[in-house]
Design a protein that fits this description.
The chain has 471 residues and is an alpha/beta fold. It is built from 19 helices and 16 strands. It starts with 7 loop residues before the first strand and ends in a 6-residue tail after the last helix.
Length: 471
């Protein structure tokens, strides 16, 4: 993203140390921060000389306290174009709902990972404000650790899941590649949950948005006095997870020096914290995820060939949502069911007009983006069924063109062709089987039972109808 000194972030926080950290993080993406420690000063800043330059407000919920939502409403009345982000230590979804209904764009739970904050701030850029709904919320539905939560019948997707399930039961390191939002972190957690190390320690280490020295200390640890600012000894994640699993997210952003250190750790099984006189014997398994294909990075020298070889003995590629659009109805039903179970939410269905709109979009943010859009729609929609009107930003982007019937008929199975004649029975049967596989999340025994046929009969029909089930 291009840097723009005119973008000012107003920080409302009564903790100076936290304000400095947030300001430093925001500066990496070109933001200049203006920090105040109370609401009165915040209002003065918004109406003052620099007020017009303020593009986003980050307010710590503890400052206005119980009146946080009223304060957000006040900001939106004064400056409706400003993006407001709430920062809180509370994990209650009720607060998230109230804050968003009051006008907050996003909702971050402390401690905030750097990439979460930067993602939220990027949505606040005025040039993309009309599409704010289409960017990921940082905190929404809790992650689920089961393979059953990975919904979809697309051939490439099911192949990836089958490969992951097999790899989970093994002992080697695993590399998962795929665009942001395709479910890599969720898959890594599901793999750990299904592995022989399921009851051991697991930790997520993100390589994005962190200074190289800080990331190296987080991974490998350091001794007290090892460098300026090392006031205490820090045990690294690799050492903490001895006997367990480390989920290494955004591995493509790991610095070359740290990559070489990690190669040495994996080869020797010994991690040596910075400044330590000796190393520590460890046994860790690594599931690494990358938003970019690593092989081209190895070719141009920006990623260690040795580390790639260590991680990619098993390599899994998750397809983007635009390449598995037929899974959108099943994913939509699944997310709506999950959201409906959250405190403060009601259960929503989706009308075909809404589903057709979802299917017509390309989803650059993939499954995570779809989840976010549904979450926002459920927050604001008072009616039971979500329609095209429940997604105004999507409608604005896609226009009012007639999108026809839902491509995958997520609310049922399409019986008629465009010319009014019935579709062939074989096609209808194939759609029903696909629908059942998606609805029961690939559990083939359950699919066969619900369809009233034997499991062997189901697999025969899959072969006859050309439906590939890799699960």
């Amino acid at each position: 993203m291009a840097k723009d000194d005119s973008r000012v972030l107003l920080l409302i926080d009564d903790e100076p140390a936290q304000s400095r950290v947030l300001s430093t993080l925001a500066a990496r993406d070109g933001w200049r921060s203006l920090a105040v420690d109370n609401c009165d000063d915040a209002v003065s800043a918004l109406t003052g000389e620099e007020g017009k330059s303020i593009a986003a407000v980050l307010v710590d919920q503890r400052v206005p306290g119980e009146t946080a939502c009223d304060f957000i409403r006040q900001i939106k009345v004064e400056r409706p174009e400003i993006a407001v982000i709430m920062l809180t230590a509370s994990t209650s979804p009720l607060l998230a709902i109230d804050a968003m209904r009051a006008g907050a764009l996003d909702y971050l739970i402390k401690p905030v990972a750097p990439e979460r904050l930067l993602t939220a701030l990027r949505t606040a850029t005025p040039s993309i404000a009309p599409r704010d709904e289409l960017h990921p919320l940082s905190e929404k539905v809790s992650p689920i650790l089961e393979f059953d939560a990975m919904v979809g019948t697309d051939t490439n997707f099911r192949t990836a899941l089958a490969k992951a399930a097999t790899a989970a039961r093994g002992h080697g390191h695993v590399l998962i590649e795929g665009e942001s939002g395709t479910g890599k972190e969720m898959l890594m957690r599901a793999m750990h949950h299904a592995s022989t190390r399921a009851k051991t320690d697991v930790a997520l280490a993100s390589c994005a948005g962190q200074a190289e020295n800080a990331l190296e200390s987080a991974l490998f640890g350091h001794e007290k006095g090892a460098f300026a600012g090392a006031f205490d000894r820090q045990e690294g994640i690799l050492q903490k997870c001895d006997g367990g699993t480390v989920l290494l997210d955004d591995v493509e952003q790991l610095g070359l020096a740290a990559q070489e250190t990690l190669v040495e750790v994996l080869e020797t099984g010994i991690v040596r914290p910075t400044g330590a006189a000796h190393g520590f014997k460890i046994d860790v398994r690594i599931f690494a995820a990358s938003n970019l294909p690593l092989e081209p990075m190895v070719a141009d020298g920006s990623f260690s060939a040795a580390l790639y070889e260590k991680l990619s003995a098993t390599r899994i590629v998750l397809p983007p949502l635009r390449e598995r659009a037929g899974d959108i109805p099943a994913l939509t039903r699944y997310f709506l069911a999950e959201i409906g179970e959250k405190e403060g939410f009601t259960h929503h269905s989706i009308a075909d007009s809404g589903l057709s709109l979802l299917e017509a979009y390309d989803w650059p943010g993939n499954v995570r983006q779809l989840q976010t859009v549904l979450f926002r729609a459920c927050v604001h929609e008072q009616r039971e069924a979500l329609t095209a009107h429940s997604f105004p930003h999507l409608s604005e982007i896609l226009g009012d063109a007639d999108r026809g019937e839902s491509r995958a008929r997520g609310l049922g199975v399409l019986l008629y062709q465009d010319d009014g004649n019935l579709r062939p029975l074989e096609e209808i049967e194939a759609d029903i089987i696909r629908l059942a596989i998606g609805h029961y999340r690939g559990r083939m025994t359950e699919v066969a039972r619900r369809l009233g046929i034997g499991r062997s009969t189901l697999y025969r029909k899959l072969a006859d109808l050309g439906i590939d089930n890799a699960a």
